[in-house]
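Appendix B. Chain record.
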Amino acid sequence: MSWRGSTTVSDRIFASLPYLLPLVEVFVFGRYLFSEFPPLQLLFLPLLPLLNIYYGVRYAGMIIFFALFLLVVRNEKISHFIRFNTMQAILLDIIIFLFGILTDVVGLIPAGGFAIQTLSTTIFIGIVGAAAYSVIQSAIGRYAEIPAISDAVYMQVR
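C-alpha cells predicted for this chain:
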C-alpha cells in the first residue's frame, strides 16, 4: 500500500537496509539448518563481513537497535515509508530476542534438543522469509504487510 505518497529510489534503498538487522540476528538460529544443508550458507556469504563486525563489537546489537529507533523511527523528517520499514525490522528483531529466551527455557528441559532444533529452524526460516518479503516489497515501493507485526508498526509510526 503506497497511499502515503510516492517513494523515490533512495527511499526504497534506505527502507530495505534495516532488514539487515534481523538477518544478522537470526543467523545463529540457522546453525542446525546449515549443518544439514551446507550449501545454504552460501546465501549468507555476502553478510559475512557484517556478521564479523556485529558479533565482534560488544553491545553492537543494542546500539544499532536504539540508534534506529531514536534516530529513524522517531524522526518525523524522514519519510513514513522508511520509518515504517525500520520499525518493522525492529519488531522482527524483538521477535528474535523473545524466541532466544524461549529456546533458553526449552534448553533447560533434559530432552529438549529436538524442540530447540525445531524452534530454531522455524524462527530462522520465518524471519528470513519475512525479511526477504519485506525487502522485495520495499524495493518495489510498497508497504510490506506482515499480519500482526504491521498493525503494531502502524500504531508506533504516525
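Further analysis of this model is presented in Appendix C.
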